[in-house]
Amino acid sequence: FGQSWSRVETDVYNTEVNRLAFHVVDEDSFTVYVACEYVSDGTTSSYGVKKIGFRFSDESAHFENDMIGESGGVITNFGANDVAINEFGDVIAAGTNSAGEPRVYGLQADSLSWISFSTAGFPDQGQATALSWGFDAYSNVVPYVAVNNTLFALDTTFSNWEPMYDYPVGSNINVLYWDDLLVGTGTGLYAQYLSPTGIKDLEKAPGSFELYANYPNPFNPETILRFRLGVNSKITLSVYDVTGRKIADLVKGVRQAGTHSVTFNAARLASGIYFYRMKARPVNGGRAFVQTRRMLLLK
């Protein structure tokens, strides 16, 4: 733990690891999600996403082999090619079943059961080879998945995957990295900027979220931060300095749908650039929203 490697006993048959994703639980522990290819000798098999929990204080590790589905049974017919975690702790995994059909599963933070995402919009046959958490036109956190040579995004209804971009046939997309989007393929890297059509910045859809620009900006010593919640949500609105150190939580808890405002007083802070970030999750279990803006304190 920090100086040497420790082996975690799993007793799992011939595991083929495709990707790892790490989630920091607290200062003493973290969790690793392991995406594993489907392998079988006809009698014994290995598949899906494995979970390993580590704790520093007693140098212990806990291994979970099975993906438990909504019905309480084990998800078996799934080879995971990629796995990713967002900052809320939500996990998604993409891969293929034994029939060669793309599949995506999700595990919400603090849940024990994986849910199966709709496959509507995907081709009937294909490898779901890579995924990433990203943002839609309204800055909602959504998953992006590569199937064959096409990039898909989950729509706002959670029921359909919309094709966003087609790469050259045979590209073998093997990695997605969001910022805006970096696509790694067998033939090279693509820097992809996704600009949705038919969206007007000043006409937000009903039920959408937004973190507005602070006013005044620059400011001294007070400024007003405004935000809009499309539905009742659990929200955190925090301020950070340029090093990423949290300065304050201005809002924390459940707030009703609508537009809200809060005053930030920086009388005790030095001049400079600061960031404010809103993280909101609908209380009805909908998708999370994250947005960050910059403000300037001039004294």
From TrEMBL:
Q: Which Pfam families match?
A: Por_Secre_tail
Q: Where is the Secretion system C-terminal sorting domain?
A: 215-280
Query: InterPro entries attached here?
Result: Secre_tail
Source organism superkingdom: Bacteria
- Report the protein name in the record: T9SS type A sorting domain-containing protein
